[in-house]
């Protein structure tokens, strides 16, 4: 079987890229030849460059889509699985969710944006294209949303949760890293550390977390923000304006986030919209309780007061209450429950489900 996996910007930090990385070894072990199709990529994966000239993001996405469509037409691959909204792909992984839903939830004006209009049109055409055989959804939330908006694709939906490597992310990291990391960043021995990991601070609710921190009743609680955002200074100013700059640490992107999971007491992702963030799964695997929102796919794995909490987006008071509540519960039980909740989401199990899907499509000789 020859499979192409398409991702326009392939970097070590992206959620789609980590999905691919965890699937590659398991797929290749089953005899699948896998190429990464991208403008650029990092690492030792076999890849195909598809990098036509562009000016602006609309031309960028359109040009990349045309390049991939030509690759599909060449018949070089048995299956082409795209992580971008490219009409004509055989399999689409909806890892970014539904763009129309994100626009609604964001509340941003978009009707005069050429890029948003292009993306909505590409999304609609993709789901209606006759060559589309399956849509991989990484949460029930995304599957239900697609079925509601695009009934023509309802019978093609396959829910496959992201995988997390339990040997790489585990509670034992606390003994290895916790003291050293907390000492390095000046966190007191008993200071509760609330960890955020992600890029795109606006969509993922960093402002809500900062505003919740100032409302918390738990003494000395800190927020550690791991990730990249070009507007980071805006969030630093917010913390300063609220008088908690010393309790909000912006740590930038990290190639290895495990020491930070080990140092933290809770993981918080108060996102406006997120199909299923890998960081939440990694945190659970490390034994961290997770607090997230109703519009995050990870909420499907959360049992309130069992392994985390769920609240509405953009509500700092509700978020503060959930954080305080969890910090007051038995941490050992929360940690054990967190780890157990993702125990079945192994790379091997994910690869088996992907292979079963690929074989089913090929046997159907689309």
Q: Can you tell me about this structure?
A:
The protein has 14 helices and 13 strands. A 7-stranded parallel beta sheet has the order 3-2-1-4-5-6-7, sandwiched between helices. Strands 10-9-8-11-12-13 form a 6-stranded parallel beta sheet, with helices on both faces. It starts with a strand and ends with a helix. Helix content is 42%, strand content 15%. Strand 11 (266-269), helix 11 (278-285) and strand 12 (290-293) form a beta-alpha-beta unit. It is globular and about 60 Å long. The protein folds into 2 domains: 2-163 and 346-363, Glycogen Phosphorylase B (Rossmann fold), CATH 3.40.50.2000; 173-341, Rossmann fold (3-Layer(aba) Sandwich), CATH 3.40.50.2000. The model has no long low-confidence stretch (mean pLDDT 92). Helix 1 crosses helix 14 and helix 8 (206-213) crosses helix 12. By secondary structure, the chain is an alpha/beta fold.
**Quick one: how many beta strands?**
13
Strand order of the largest sheet: 3-2-1-4-5-6-7
Helix proportion = 40-55%
- According to CATH, the fold-level topology of the largest domain is Rossmann fold
Give average pLDDT, whole number.
92
């Amino acid at each position: 079987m020859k499979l192409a996996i398409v991702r326009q910007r392939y970097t070590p930090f992206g959620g789609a890229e980590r999905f691919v990385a965890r699937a590659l070894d398991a797929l290749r072990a089953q005899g699948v030849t896998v190429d990464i199709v991208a403008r650029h990529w990092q690492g030792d994966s076999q890849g195909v460059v598809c990098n036509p000239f562009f000016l602006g993001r609309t031309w960028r996405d359109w040009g990349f889509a045309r390049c991939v469509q030509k690759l599909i037409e060449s018949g070089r691959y048995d299956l082409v699985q795209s992580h971008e909204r490219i009409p004509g792909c055989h399999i689409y992984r909806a890892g970014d969710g539904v763009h129309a839903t994100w626009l609604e939830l964001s509340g941003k004006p978009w009707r005069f944006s050429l890029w948003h209009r292009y993306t909505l049109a590409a999304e609609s055409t993709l789901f209606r294209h006759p060559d589309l055989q399956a849509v991989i959804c990484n949460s029930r939330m995304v599957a239900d949303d697609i079925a509601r908006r695009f009934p023509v694709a309802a019978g093609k939906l396959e829910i496959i949760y992201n995988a997390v490597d339990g040997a790489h992310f585990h509670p034992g990291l606390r003994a290895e890293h916790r003291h050293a990391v907390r000492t390095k960043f000046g966190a007191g021995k008993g200071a509760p550390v609330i960890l955020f990991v992600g890029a795109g601070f606006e969509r993922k609710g960093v402002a809500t977390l900062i505003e919740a921190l100032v409302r918390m009743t738990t003494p000395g609680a800190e927020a550690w923000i791991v990730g990249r955002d070009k507007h980071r200074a805006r969030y630093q100013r917010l913390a300063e304006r609220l008088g908690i700059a010393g309790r909000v640490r912006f740590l930038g992107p990290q190639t290895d986030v495990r020491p930070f999971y080990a140092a933290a007491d809770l993981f918080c992702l108060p996102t406006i919209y997120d199909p299923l963030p890998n960081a939440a799964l990694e945190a659970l695997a490390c034994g961290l309780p997770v607090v997230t929102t109703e519009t995050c796919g990870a909420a499907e794995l959360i049992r309130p007061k069992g392994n985390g909490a769920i609240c509405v987006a953009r509500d700092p008071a509700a978020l503060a209450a959930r954080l305080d509540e969890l910090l007051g519960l038995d941490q050992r039980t929360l940690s054990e429950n967190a780890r157990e909740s993702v125990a079945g989401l192994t790379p091997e199990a994910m690869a088996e489900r992907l292979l079963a899907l690929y074989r089913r499509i090929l046997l159907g000789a689309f």
